[in-house]
Amino acid sequence: MDEANPSATPPPLNAGELFERYASGVGSFFLARVGDPELAEELTSRVFVQVVQRLEQCRGNACGWIWAIANSILSRHYRDKGRRKPDAAEEPVYVDPLQSAENREWQALLPGILAELSPREQELVFLKFFQDLSNQQIAEATDLTVSNVGVILFRALKRLRSRLEPTASTLAKEQE
Fold it and tell me: What CATH code would you report for 96-176?
């Protein structure tokens, strides 16, 4: 937007640039939520098909708009398919068997622990750590203040840490 003329029209959005910037984070978000790499890729594709089809509808913050599309697609997926755990055969193959076992344990635990957060906390955690957004960018995408984003993230991470620490020590003892 032109600072001299605040009512100036922002430059048009480019779907390719949006894909380059946000696809990895959207894919990580879906993978963390559904646990299936192929399904996560499919859901990510659906997001960017909608981005291309509705690009002219984006008003304001593109990140918030893409985030809203991703949440809508995830909700629709769960409504249409119902919650189900991924099949063991669909899990990715890891080179190191010990690391693979630990990764599977964390992948099994993390969605349940994240689900204990409120929807708002989940949204902010995913924007921060899967989209790599700053608190300022998150505030713009969610219509919160920067300080509110910081407080919500601090409290959510504190809760996550308290749930993960006992799990981490249990996993460490099992590997000894």
Answer: 1.10.10.10
